[in-house]
Amino acid sequence: CWLAGYLGAVLASFPLYAGHGSGDLDSRLVFGIILPAQQLAIVLAVVYVSRLKGQRTLRGDFGFRIRLRDARFLIVGTVLEVVLTLALVPILHLDPSSKNQQLLTDLDKHRDAATVALFVVGAVILAPLVEELLFRGVLLRALLRKFDPPVAVLVSALVFALVHYIGDPHTLPFLPALAGLGAVLAVTAVRTGDLSASIFIHAGFNLTTTVLFLASGAKLS
C-alpha cells in the first residue's frame, strides 16, 4: 500500500547518511545537505500522494497546520524531555559504555557557529515538521482507519522509535524515551485533531535536548 511506500522511502534514505558515523562525511554536509534532502524527499512524497489520492492539501489529508497559540506546547516538550531523560538514567547506568546518539556525537566534533546553526535548524524546525507529518499525519491516521485509538497510538509510537534505531543503532538505549515521546505526540494529535500542538511539543523536546547538550560541553563518545 502507499503507506508502506512512505516508510520504505524513509528507510531507504538512511544509507545516504550511514557513512557519517565513521567520519566519512563532514558534519556540515550531513546537517546542511543530506538530512534536509532526505526530509524534502519525504515531504514531496507526501504531497504527491495527497494530490494523487487525497484532498490535495496537507491540512485536509494529514492535519498539517501550525497555530501560533500552540507555541505554549513548547513547554510540554521541555518538561517531557527532562522527565524521559531522568527515567533513562537507570538504563544508561546498566551500560556505562553506551554511546551518544550519532547526530549529537557529530555536533560535538564540530561546535563552530555554522555547524551549530545548521543542527538547530534541522533538529528544532525541520525534524518536528517532517516527522510529525510522516508519523502522526500519515502513519497514525492510516492506523486509526484500521484500529482503535489505543492500538494505533501504541503501534505508531513503536514504529517511531524503531525507525530512529534503524537510522542510528546508537539510539538503542534511548528507545524507551523515543517510544514515550512518540506516544505523547500521537495522543496529542488524536485529541487535537491536527498536528499543530504535536509539532510544538516535538520542537520543544528537541530544543531542550540541543540546549542541554551544548551547555554541558560534554565530549560524549
The count of helical stretches stands at 10
Oligomer: single chain
Q: Number of folding domains? A: 1
Distance between the termini: 40 Å
SSE order, as H and E?
Answer: HHHHHHHHHH
Beta-strand segment tally: 0
Overall helicity: over 70%
Low-confidence stretches: 15-23
Portion in strands: under 5%
Please give the radius of gyration in angstroms: 17 Å
Shape: globular
Question: Main beta sheet, described?
Answer: none
How does the helix and strand content classify structurally?
mainly alpha
Give average pLDDT, whole number.
Answer: 84
Notable characteristics:
single chain; mainly alpha; 0% strand
Secondary structure layout:
Layout: H1 2-13, H2 15-18, H3 27-53, H4 58-62, H5 73-94, H6 102-109, H7 113-144, H8 149-167, H9 175-192, H10 196-216
Helix pairs in contact: 1-3, 3-7, 5-9, 5-10, 7-8, 7-10, 8-9, 9-10
Describe it.
This protein has 221 residues and is mostly helical. It has one domain (2-216). The protein contains ten helices and no strands. It has helices at residues 2-13, 15-18, 27-53, 58-62, 73-94, 102-109, 113-144, 149-167, 175-192, 196-216. α5 (73-94) runs antiparallel to α9 (175-192) and α9 runs antiparallel to α10 (196-216). The longest helix is centred in the middle third of the chain and has 32 residues, at 113-144. The radius of gyration is 17 Å and the shape is globular. The termini are far apart.
